[in-house]
Amino acid sequence: MRRNRATTLAIVILAGLMLAGWAISGQEQAGATVEKFSANIMVQGGGAPAGRSTRLNMDVTHWATQGDLDGFKKILTEGGPNALYKALAGRNVGKVQTTQSYEYPIYLAFSVTTEKGRTIKLITERPVFTKEVVRDQDTLEYIYSYIELNLDAKGKGSGKMLGTAKVFINKEGKVDIDTHGQPQPLINARKV
Predict the structure, then answer these.
(1) Prediction pTM value
(2) pLDDT, tens digit, for every residue of 100-140?
(3) Nearest C-alpha neighbor of 72 from the set 98, 110, 38, 125
(4) Within its chain, how far is the Cα of 42 from the centroid?
(5) Is 82 part of a structural domain of the chain?
């Protein structure tokens, strides 16, 4: 297993909720109403498209409760990443769609109240390309995409997306996220 530690984000994504017990408000737990968010994702790298952006539209139909998060942490701890994937892959709690009409299901959505507003965290399916399978690349271990939006009290802000991400338990016993690439900045994020 090869990891690019220089680009590893030692961000504790699920751990903040699962281990530190961040409070999820009652409104966010209920998930009765669809909440819509959008952001521009900046295209990075060389070539003509670099520096341009595309719009991401995110619809969340169900927010995870603390009980959901505790259950997923237990699955990950006892069964490993494959067991977590099996548990999450059957869930569809919303969708992420680009302006190019690519649509991916959201497996897990949670919202954390912050001093300035709220942080939205989404774990989604990610596309797997034929060349990854043919070349048996280690990117196949990075089976999710991760989106984080930091919104102020008016529902506006910014964020980031990890196009290839994996969830694992680190040496300290905390849930952690690793990425096989660079985070992509999200700008003009807002609640719609």
Answers:
(1) 0.77
(2) 778 899 999 999 999 999 999 999 987 655 454 455 555 55
(3) 110
(4) 16
(5) yes
